[in-house]
Specification:
Elements lengths: L12 H15 L4 H53 L14 E4 L2 E4 L8 H16 L5 H8 L9 H16 L5 H5 L3 E8 L2 E6 L2 E4 L7 H15 L7 E7 L2 E7 L5 E6 L1
Antiparallel strand pairs: 1-2, 3-4, 3-8, 4-5, 6-7, 7-8
Length: about 260
């Protein structure tokens, strides 16, 4: 027999009825069918969740490898396109670092060793000795001659004097860089202070010049002494060397030269 409480306030009767209903429901035994359905719903929901997680992982793994495959194909396509494209045209000959074109003038940019007046005095004392004895040891000649001018020498100083000995006696004086430059095919000396060269099939004035007519005349004399027996003034110069043809007029007043590379 259930116990009922009487409330003095009759307005609370509805609340009491609801409480009684809840108590009756709680006292009932669980419905086995309902419990079975609840267990099925829980299992089904869990299975769907596990399947969804596995599918997501599988999709992520495939996506991780996909970009690698695409990038490889793209690379192969690019390589095929490059292989099919025509080769680039041959590049022009590389410009010598010793020359550059500025305002339609060919400029020799190499810095040569600086010589003082006393250095040239020593040079002029050594050159005749080398002309008389070309096999003489240059280092020893410089060391033996320098005390005459009270010059303190070092190995770098000896190298400077030897640079001009090599350039002026063994080679072609101030024209040496022009002759050694592969992009220059012709040199025209109309006067001591005017030189025109053919550089890449274009004739350009160059900043390499003789200091005087006498210097150009002396250079002609050296050429004739080395490569010809003719030293008569106001005569034609015609010297043929391996890779060079040198022509001009051997003249004290109007010396000129033309050097063509072959």
């Amino acid at each position: 027999m259930s116990i009922k409480f009487l409330y003095p306030d009759e307005s609370k009767k509805d609340v009491l009825d609801e409480l009684n209903k809840i108590v009756e429901i709680l006292q009932k035994k669980p419905d086995p069918v309902l419990q079975k359905n609840i267990r099925f719903v829980k299992s089904f929901t869990k299975a769907m969740f596990v399947t969804a997680v596995k599918q997501k992982k599988r999709e992520q793994v495939n996506f991780r490898h996909l970009p690698i495959h695409i990038s490889t194909q793209t690379k192969e396509i690019k390589e095929k396109k490059q292989a099919l494209s025509p080769p680039p045209p041959p590049s022009p000959p590389s410009a010598s670092s010793a020359f550059k074109k500025e305002n339609n003038v060919l400029v020799y940019t190499k810095l040569e060793p600086q010589m003082s007046e006393k250095d040239w005095e020593l040079y002029n004392l050594i050159v005749p000795q080398l002309q008389n004895n070309p096999a003489a040891n240059q280092d020893e000649l410089i060391k033996e001659t320098s005390p005459q001018l009270n010059i303190q020498i070092s190995q770098s100083y000896i190298g400077k004097i030897k640079y001009y000995i090599e350039r002026n006696l063994r080679k072609y004086n101030i024209l040496t860089p022009l002759i050694e430059e592969p992009r220059i095919s012709e040199i025209n000396i109309k006067s001591f202070n005017s030189a025109l060269v053919k550089y890449d099939n274009e004739f350009l004035p160059v900043n390499i010049k003789f200091n005087s007519e006498q210097e150009l005349f002396d250079f002609q004399a050296v050429l004739l002494a080395k490569y010809s027996n003719k030293l008569k003034e106001e005569s034609q110069i015609n010297i043929k060397l391996p890779g060079l043809v040198i022509t001009g007029v051997y003249s004290r007043k109007y010396p000129n030269l033309r050097i063509i590379k072959q």
